[in-house]
Amino acid sequence: MADISASIQNRDAAGDSSGEAGPVEQTTMIEARNLDFYYGENQALFDISMVVPQRAVTALIGPSGCGKSTFLRTLNRMNDIVEGTRHTGEVLLENEDIYDSNVDVVELRKRVGMVFQKSTPFPKSIFDNVAYGPRIHGMRDRAQLAEIVEKSLIRSALWKEVKDRLKDSAMALSGGQQQRLCIARALATDPEVLLMDEPASALDPASTSRIEDLIFELKENYTIVIVTHNMQQAARVSDFTAFFYEGRLIERGDTEKLFTNPDEKQTQDYITGRFG
Ligand SMILES: Nc1ncnc2c1ncn2[C@@H]1O[C@H](COP(=O)(O)OP(=O)(O)OP(=O)(O)O)[C@@H](O)[C@H]1O
Fold it and tell me: Where in this chain does the record put each ABC transporter domain (predicted)?
């Protein structure tokens, strides 16, 4: 708990405090309404209703198996690729249900990009990794591609380190650089939302800190939802936090309030380390 308070104070010192009232709730970008989700017979999410504000960071926390990643993956229909899954309820992206039959899933995933825990670059050059998405979406113009690659690498805070070796294999980058490359790859298709599933859990403290700084910068332009096991990290990087337990959303609110004065006893027990 002391650590988490320190994380919040550090974050506030870095200029993320909006005062005692907490962050202002912006326009809603995503909203889940009464979402149930099943893997075959096994129900993994129960009646989740939650908003994700635009251009802010929302962290999903909770003990292992509580449904954080499942919920994250429902937000760009990544679960569609798992056989035997189904849902009831709605997930609205700017007020339109992403599960409507007329939704183009490729287009949806362009708007709602994803970065995984241990993102693996393709065994291609740094340039080709970042250009991959735009090329899939039909872009062929070399100059335009070069512009997108540069912009994405600048945004993912990797440009300075790689600008002179864009033709080198991405596999030669360090773990932290590979993760930033994968963030650049996600940014290259110009998404509005970035879903991050434990983006720093496989990294050393210095690389983790870079990714956290990057998340902080990216929220100026993107809506970010991040799954993390690390409560200090949630406290450091997020504006809003949602606590999941056994497939249910127990509480969601302003990060500072949730970590210092939660409404629910289960949240209090979890953040003080009584379980999980
Ligand atoms: N591909 C899958 N097939 C079947 N069941 C799954 C699958 N993925 C997850 N589950 C189940 O759904 C439930 C929620 O899992 P999920 O991975 O969403 O939890 P989590 O909170 O992200 O956990 P962790 O923190 O350990 O990654 C668990 O009971 C899990 O076993």
Answer: 30-271
Q: State the pTM of this model.
A: 0.90
Task: Assess whether the C-beta atom of 39 lies below 6 angstroms from ligand 1.
Answer: yes
Q: How far is the CA of 60 from the centre of ligand 1 (A)?
A: 14
* Strand 193-197 with 223-227, pairing: parallel
- 74-113 pLDDT, tens digit per residue, is 999 999 989 999 999 999 999 999 999 999 999 999 999 9
Domains of the chain (ranges plus CATH)?
2-19+26-271 (3.40.50.300)
User: What distance in angstroms lies between residue 230's CA and the mean position of ligand 1's atoms?
Assistant: 17
Ligand 1 contact, 69 CB (< 6 A) = yes
Round to whole Å and give the CA distance between 104 and 99.
9
Q: For ligand 1, is residue 73 a contact (CB within 6 Å)? A: no
138 C-alpha to center of ligand 1: Å? 34
Q: Is 53 in the pocket of ligand 1 (CB under 6 A)?
A: no
ipTM above 0.90, yes or no: yes
Count CB-CB contacts under 10 A for residue 206.
8
Question: 45 alpha carbon to ligand 1 midpoint, in Å?
Answer: 10
pLDDT, tens digit, 9 for 90 and up, residues 189-230: 989 999 999 988 878 888 888 889 989 989 999 999 999 989
What are the helix (H) ranges across the chain? 2-11, 68-74, 105-111, 126-136, 142-155, 159-162, 175-187, 205-218, 231-237, 255-260, 265-271
Ligand 1 pocket member 38 (CB < 6 A): no
Ligand 1 center to 70 CA (angstroms):
6
**β-strand partners of 93:** 30, 96
Whole-Å CA distances, 135 to 86, 142, 171: 31, 10, 20
